[in-house]
């Protein structure tokens, strides 16, 4: 069970934490032109390196180093094949919705699950040597690497899922509702965290960015700020709920309302603001309740 949690955590880190917007864009651009070929120039291979390296943390907790390397190579290969097929399908169909995103992640996790069952690696206590030949009279110059509790691993996975991954889900939901018109302010999209493809920029944002209206032009800085606002917002909600401090969530709403006071006077803008905020809070509350149940 713990091996599976380590692998899932490594997958989330590689797919959502370490993968940059630029890498996501490079993959999409490559498959628009060369969607049937795999070459050394394919940006997908860079992503594969991130996936492979992220799983090497297993060496700190498990024996059978060669078996771990073989397992992680097989998982990475499967990951790349799934991404490759998904990118071909989405580029050919010109669609990249929540269904494709969910199916892709399900296949990744299913592949990881089967790999964790097939490969038998055993946990062992590992140590780090201090200062080369330095010897301590207490532990002979060794520091014991502590085993990470299952509850801690589960909590970290939930934090990533309901803060970062949830941003991608929110983007697909809002994009499905066709939130693009001349009355939509850029800040509504920022607060709602309209993202796509593991934190990338959505089609909605791209349409706004190329708009002839100066007020609707979204700079890259504003995009990044908007994404960070949403992630921090959900992290705070998760922490407050897990701690049972439900009233503290009112501070987040108060700050957001104050900073967007002028925008909220417009009915259309306020509706989009409310929708994005409610979705963000929903994921944050669910994540907090799961962590609270896990640690109780």
From TrEMBL:
Keywords carried by this UniProt record: Membrane, Transmembrane, Transmembrane helix
UniProt xrefs under Pfam families: DUF3307 (PF11750)
Ranges that cross the membrane: 60-82, 151-174, 231-252, 272-291
InterPro entries given in the database record: Phage_phiKZ_Orf197
Protein's recorded name: DUF3307 domain-containing protein
Species per Swiss-Prot/TrEMBL record: Vallitalea guaymasensis
